[in-house]
Amino acid sequence: MFEVLPQLPADPILGLSAAFKADPNPNKIDLGVGVYKDEAGRTPILHSVAKAQQILLGKEDSKTYITPQGVQGFIDGLSELLLGKGNAALLSNRVAAVQAPGGCGALRILAELLKRCNSDLTVWVSDPTWANHIPLIGNAGLKIKTYPYFDKATASIKFDEMMACLAEVKSGDVVLLHGCCHNPTGADLNRAQWDEVLGLAQKTGFVPFIDVAYLGFGDSLEDDAYGTRLMVNNLPEVIIAASCSKNFGLYRERVGLAVMVTKDTQTRNAIQSQIQSIARGIYSMPPSYGGALVDIILHDPSLFSEWQAEVEMMRSRMQDLRGLLVNKLAEYGAKQDFSFVNQQKGMFSYLCISPEQVKAMREKHSVYFVDSSRVNIAGISLNNVDSLAKSLVSVL
Ligand code: LMR
Fold first, then answer.
1. Within this chain, do residues 69 and 205 fall inside the same structural domain, yes or no?
2. In 3D, which of 126, 121, 94, 97 has the Cα closest to residue 235?
3. What are the respective helix, strand and coil percentages of the chain, to the nearest 5?
């Protein structure tokens, strides 16, 4: 039976790691998959996470099943981090939430929930959006359409076009927004723009679906939650998929949270039962380990401060690398102005170069990044920035 299926091309993002590994060039540069790297190119376990692992080792006394919704301390702690202390929806018991296997798991079960609510609805995603949004949402059987978001020619958000498109979205349709650090462009809505999107959601009745995968990597943990909190505080229904892969460095532990803000407690209880039955029908319950670590960190004041400082360190290192790349490009004679890279936020930047130029970077210079021209800023280092900038200038 298997012979009916063809071999598929490599994943546009994860496939880059295999291609990079296979490249024998000792000076190759990996700016592909979105993982944080230090100056030595390692993705270290955060100190706060290492300490939490020791605590967990000392106190965990069973490997029996956890509850279907996941580690409750993790759910409570991360919900509060996202929505803010004293959030009215949390206090009035309007928020359903389950731990999920990574941000991907959260996106997928939320898509399944939307399908149960209305199999006819459309999910609107930004053009461009993270490549895996399409299969995660589309494979649940939902229709996907795009709204204009980023203009490669000016390296900026097409806000007027975006708003004109969203103004036509039907009530009950869903609009996927990136809470912060837009993947792939790094171009984020500012506060005034978030306010306008809220006004439109109130007017047209679309439901925001917010993907928060990089909290703390943009401006700060608090600032990066602005759009998410604004929506939750002013709309009856909001959906959130959060990930702890990046800001806790827990990539392989698959730690995510699916959050559904509902109109009232009765609806909340129904939705909580629905999302748990969806999870049960796919993977039964989430793995406990990563969620247990985040629970420990969020509820231990000293570990929490240490983790905040580590997030701040990663954020400011990436910000410095942006400046370094922009300066080096100018130093090596780039005619194009790349200063927009300094304004972009988080782990990614869209260099706004052509697919042919991206291909030339890979084939001639062994520099690996996504065809769209998305680079992982954290893959830049003091060691490779000169060679990176020279190679880029040579393909422009
Ligand atoms: C990325 O965008 O590179 C990361 O989120 C990893 C992934 O799964 O695509």
1. yes
2. 94
3. 45, 15, 40
Residues 288 and 312 in one domain: no
Q: Are residues 121 and 195 in the same domain?
A: yes
The answer to whether the beta carbons of residues 71 and 99 sit under 8 Å apart is yes
Encoded amino acid at 250, one letter: L
The predicted model scores a pTM of 0.96
Q: What integer pLDDT is reported at residue 2 of this predicted model?
A: 96
- Percent share of the chain, pLDDT over 70: 100
Last residue of a domain, one of 249, 271, 299: 299
For a ligand 1 pocket test, name from 16, 35, 130 the mutation site with the most ligand atoms within 8 angstroms of its C-beta. Answer: 130
* CB 183 less than 6 A from any atom of ligand 1: yes
22 labelled catalytic = no
Cα–ligand 1 centroid distance for 376 (angstroms): 10
13 Cβ below 6 A of ligand 1: yes
Query: Is 34 touching ligand 1 by the criterion CB < 6 Å?
Result: yes
Task: Please name which of 179, 253, 255 lies closest in space to residue 217, comparing C-alpha atoms.
Answer: 179
Tell me if residue 124 is catalytic. Answer: no
| 321 and 217 belong to one structural domain | no
Both 30 and 16 in one domain: the answer is yes
Residue type, 244: C
Signed CA dihedral, 227, 230, 232, 235: sign only:
negative
Structural domain that includes position 380: 10-44+303-395
Total domains in the chain come to: 2
CA distance linking residue 43 with residue 41, whole number of Å = 7
- Taking CA atoms only, the protein residue closest to ligand 1 atom 5 is 34
Given 30, 211, 224, 295, which residue is catalytic? 211
Q: How far apart are CA 17 and CA 28, in angstroms?
A: 12
Whether 130 sits among the annotated catalytic residues: the reply is yes
With cut-offs at 50, 70 and 90, classify the pLDDT of residue 167.
Answer: very high
Q: Atom 1 of ligand 1 has which residue's CA nearest to it?
A: 34
Domain limit, last residue, from 272, 299, 326? 299
pLDDT of residue 309: 98
One domain, residues 294 and 309: no
Say if residue 128 is in the same domain as residue 21. no
Q: What is the DSSP string of 198-226?
A: HHHHHHH--EEEEEES-TTSSS-TTGGGH
The domain that holds 159 is classified in CATH as: 3.40.640.10
Residue 369, pLDDT score: 97
